[in-house]
Amino acid sequence: NAGVTQTPKFRVLKTGQSMTLLCAQDMNHEYMYWYRQDPGMGLRLIHYSVGEGTTAKGEVPDGYNVSRLKKQNFLLGLESAAPSQTSVYFCASSSPRKTYEQYFGPGTRLTVT
Amino acid sequence: KNEVEQSPQNLTAQEGEFITINCSYSVGISALHWLQQHPGGGIVSLFMLSSGKKKHGRLIATINIQEKHSSLHITASHPRDSAVYICAVTQGGSEKLVFGKGTKLTVNP
């Protein structure tokens, strides 16, 4: 099993450009999450999904959109990137059948210039 | 005030030392998680506990629900233990984690 994978691993964007980060998991987990990690701050939840076709806002959702069309995939979109979105993005998944222990992807380092 | 506070923020130790990292939280929880993030960036779950104590190799995690406090201990520390250790909590039935800011541990040979 690959676990949780993220693509791309690195990306540089110019202000105003758009992009989509892809998260995929092969553990049949119901829940998926997108976090951002910034220096001096803990991981912060952007959006999450409790099942295929459903999404919900987290702590810092502004400037991001998400979609969960398939159970195994969770996409994070930036429609018009801003320098404040320079961060490391982590995807995670979990299942209530496994007491919500979260499994993390390797992260995507995004720089917006 | 953060709902999850960790101390210390930074910790430097010599190889072989016993290490303790603390986590305090201000909300009712259903479980507490300890995570490890290596310099390469990957995050792995070390423990999830709701009471008592768990042990895995040289790592021990304890929780005191009444005092809203957890500790992560590392016995016979080794340079490969150098990482950021993150405490996180889930609140009653919630699928969401609330994270502390992490403790950066450096173990020198």
User: What number is the mean pLDDT of chain A?
Assistant: 93
Instruction: Characterize the largest beta sheet of chain A: strand count, sense, and whether it forms a barrel.
Output: 7 strands, mixed
Compute the CA-based radius of gyration of chain A: 13 Å
Structural class of chain A: mainly beta
Q: Which segments of chain B are poorly predicted (pLDDT under 50) over 5 or more consecutive residues?
A: none
Spatial separation of the terminal alpha carbons of chain B? 36 Å
Q: Which assembly state applies to the chains in this document?
A: heterodimer
- The helical percent of chain B reads under 10%
- Biggest sheet of chain B, open or closed, and with what strands and sense? 6 strands, mixed
The proportion of residues forming helix of chain A, as a percent range, comes to under 10%
Distance between the termini of chain A: 36 Å
- Strand element count of chain A: 11
Mean pLDDT of chain B: 92
Which segments of chain A are poorly predicted (pLDDT under 50) over 5 or more consecutive residues?
Answer: none
Describe the structure.
- The complex is a heterodimer of chains A (113) and B (109).
- Chain A is mostly beta strands and 113 residues long.
- Helix content of chain A is 0%, strand content 52%.
- In chain A, strands 2, 4, 5, 6, 9, 10 and 11 form a seven-stranded mixed β-sheet that branches. In chain A, strands 1-3-8-7 form a four-stranded antiparallel β-sheet, with no helix packed on it.
- Chain B has no helices and eleven strands.
- In chain B, strands 2, 4, 5, 9, 10 and 11 form a six-stranded mixed β-sheet that branches. In chain B, strands 1-3-8-7-6 form a five-stranded antiparallel β-sheet, with no helix packed on it.
- In chain B, a hairpin with a 4-residue loop joins strand 7 and strand 8 (69-74).
- Chains A and B meet through strand 5, strand 9 and strand 10 of A and strand 4, strand 5 and strand 9 of B.
